[in-house]
Amino acid sequence: MKIHPSQEQLIQYCEGTLSDVDGFTIALHLEQCSECKAKARELEAQCANLLFGAEVDSGSHTNDSTVMNEMLDAITALESSTQIQQDVYQVKHAIIRTPNGKEFVLPKALSRHVERIGDWKNYGGKVYSASVDLDTQARVNLLYINEDAQVPQHTHKGEETTVILHGGFSDEDGHYHAGDYLTRDASHKHAPFTQAGEDCLCLTVLTEPMIFTQGVARIFNLFGKGMYP
């Protein structure tokens, strides 16, 4: 594992200011990354110290009210975050079976939504996707890339976040392993692929459709909207 969320993302996660889907992807990464999990605990402690150590200016009743409201909002956010983490901790790991019959154990953050995972659909060749209905405008999918397979080269109208759950894949920029947290946008073009004897299960979040940049897959761009997996 070599690619992690940024320090700013971890801070926002601990403060409870990320969107639900971004917080979800961070939680998936934290289950697999002891380094980021330790950082998150430190940041949560720092947030708590800042929150309860805040000094209220007694010279202005208006400021008092504003500060107290902000503190109450922060406390509520921290309590909500803590409750979510406790709920995830109590969930049992679910198992998902891929189209080729291989079984994978899902992280607890995803296992709690296992009933929201749709059926596998062939994405072309040895690549399959299953939607995850998280009641968000972003498109969330499980993506399974069988061994010795490739996703057509593409870029993005919006942002793509990928958390590798099992196995690994490569693209033009390098090789990625389980736990890696990747973000791609319109400035990136890549064609993820697996090698012989290697497959990959990952979760992807797309805020906008993909735009294919090579080969016959570009026909999907003719509709003017790109394509979701």
TrEMBL record:
Native organism: Vibrio agarivorans
Pfam families (alphabetical): Cupin_7 (PF12973)
Domain ChrR-like cupin: from-to ranges: 133-205
Gene3D superfamilies tied to this protein: Anti-sigma factor, zinc-finger domain (1.10.10.1320), Jelly Rolls (2.60.120.10)
Signal peptide start-end: none
Full protein name: ChrR family anti-sigma-E factor
InterPro entries found in the cross-reference section: Anti-sigma_ChrR, Anti_sigma_zinc_sf, ChrR-like_cupin_dom, RmlC-like_jellyroll, RmlC_Cupin_sf
NCBIfam families membership: anti_sig_ChrR
